[in-house]
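User: Just a sanity check before I run the rest of the batch. Below are the structure tokens for the first item. I only need the designed sequence back.
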């Protein structure tokens, strides 16, 4: 009797395992910096639909995301707005060097509030008395104001009007949204991401700064083949079309 009971229990366990195997679908845990997340989320949604799977996209400051990844030792893909962020992560062994790809480029621009109340149209206008400038001291915009102002030989005059520092793209845009500054150094794509609150003022081509939006497989990835499939999709024409709609440049 006991033997028959054991056989019955084994059969139930096997049935449960079989059902779990039939219902299991692979998933990816994706980390993304905030200002590069909108096109990534749309591209991932296409990938999910085409492959019948689910992806969990976590959005935040790159420094916070990498700290979480390194603490928990989990995650499959990370995307950031500048290559130097992944350089650091690669040196720490957090991302796989050979998996890194560029998803396109953003060019620097002056970002002003909708309506442009100060009438800013050039870098020279940023040097006018009373103009309040915001800059990012972290994330993908780190150092961009210096690169642009130095090319224009306006470093001292621009610096004099810098009134606010922010630690990320989202935080520097918040300075515009809360009327704390009259302009920030940002990316052309900001106007596509926040069309209701800002306008991008173009900088002369010889003064522009370009930075690559990067993605890579995380060293703790559980499903490397699936992660690589998504990375491959992110450099396809279908994905690039989404990024282009948001202002990214590919050629």
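Assistant: Here's the designed sequence for the first item:
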């Amino acid at each position: 009797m006991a033997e028959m009971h054991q056989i019955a229990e084994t059969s139930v366990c096997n049935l449960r395992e079989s059902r779990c195997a039939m219902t299991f679908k692979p998933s990816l845990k994706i980390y993304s910096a905030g200002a590069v997340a909108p096109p990534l989320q749309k591209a991932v949604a296409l990938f999910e639909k085409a492959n019948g799977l689910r992806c969990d996209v976590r959005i935040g400051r790159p420094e916070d995301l990498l700290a979480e990844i390194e603490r928990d030792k989990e995650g499959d893909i990370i995307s950031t707005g500048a290559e130097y962020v992944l350089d650091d992560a690669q040196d720490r062994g957090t991302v796989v060097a050979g998996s890194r790809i560029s998803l396109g480029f953003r060019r620097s621009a002056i970002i002003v509030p909708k309506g442009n109340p100060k009438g800013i149209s050039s870098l020279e206008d940023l040097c006018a008395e009373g103009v309040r400038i915001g800059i990012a001291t972290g994330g993908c915009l780190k150092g961009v104001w210096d690169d642009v102002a130095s090319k224009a030989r306006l470093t001292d005059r621009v610096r004099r009007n810098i009134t606010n520092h922010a630690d990320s793209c989202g935080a520097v845009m918040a300075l515009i949204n809360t009327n704390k500054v009259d302009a920030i150094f940002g990316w052309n794509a900001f106007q596509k991401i926040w069309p209701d609150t800002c306008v991008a003022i173009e900088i002369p081509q010889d003064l522009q700064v370009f930075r690559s939006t990067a993605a890579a497989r995380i060293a703790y990835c559980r499903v490397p083949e699936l992660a690589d499939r998504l990375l491959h999709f992110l450099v396809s024409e279908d994905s690039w079309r989404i990024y282009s709609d948001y202002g990214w440049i590919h050629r």
